[in-house]
Design a protein that fits this description.
mainly beta; 4-stranded mixed beta sheet; 3 helices; about 10% helix
Length: about 240
């Protein structure tokens, strides 16, 4: 009688193990806003200029990619992607995100409790909201890593903005150490933890009403100059 050999992903034998597949980056299939319109991740090249929050453009200094989820027969849940269904956040196409990817929101109702109107949530903390949830990994998908001079928010599917963190910056530094707050240009952004994210999503669900209600695009899309006068700017010491 022959014994069948159990399939094991090649990454499990590496020092980094499965964490490699849950690393920072953008999963293939998404389109990003550039100075020349919407471009698929695979078509972006070094030297492209991308609009960023809260305004202006940044030069893409490098872009790399690698295959992940080589043989996703038993991937641990911590490295499985989060699916954002079509229309969930105003996106015309479904998108896969890494669980640790942070999505930017704008809500003036948060100025009183948080002191700012800009906040981010982890994609992994949004499971169950408007159909967003964890899915099985697509086999051998490409993970793209965009490099700017600093952490930047870029626009995905002309619908929402995500935080892109260069490989030389740790996530702790990217989100800031002072109560998970960080300045991006003239705007201060608060990065919510899981408990805060749960409370905020419950607030949104109550406000939106029906689960199939149209997504208010002004919650996740920022047009440069549209709100700059409504919020306090960063104080620059002389």
């Amino acid at each position: 009688m022959s014994l069948m050999k159990r399939r094991v992903c090649a990454y499990r034998h590496l020092d980094a193990g499965c964490s490699r597949c849950g690393g920072s980056g953008l999963v293939e299939g998404a389109h990003l806003a550039t100075q020349d319109g919407q471009w698929p991740l695979g078509a972006l090249e070094e030297g492209a200029r991308l609009p960023v929050f809260p305004g202006g453009e940044r030069l893409l200094t490098a872009i790399g990619h690698e295959r992940i989820w080589l043989d996703p027969v038993d991937c641990p849940s911590v490295v499985k992607p989060i699916a954002v269904p079509e229309g969930a956040l105003g996106n015309a196409h479904a998108v896969l995100l890494q669980a640790d990817t942070r999505i930017l929101f704008h809500d003036e109702a948060m100025i009183e409790p948080l002191g700012v109107a800009w906040l981010t949530l982890r994609a992994g903390d949004m499971e169950g909201f408007r159909g967003i949830g964890q899915v099985e990994p697509p086999r051998q998908a490409r993970l793209y890593r965009l490099q700017f001079e600093d952490a930047e928010f870029v626009t995905v599917e002309d619908a929402f903005q995500v935080l892109v963190v260069p490989v030389f910056i740790t996530m702790d530094k990217a989100v800031g150490r002072s109560g998970l707050r960080r300045w991006f240009g003239s705007q201060e952004v608060v990065h919510l933890d899981q408990e805060q994210a749960d409370a905020y999503l419950a607030f949104l669900e109550t406000e939106l009403g029906r689960a199939d209600a149209a997504w208010p695009r002004d919650r996740t899309m920022f047009r440069p100059g549209s709100r700059a006068g409504k919020e306090r700017s960063r104080k620059v010491s002389g």
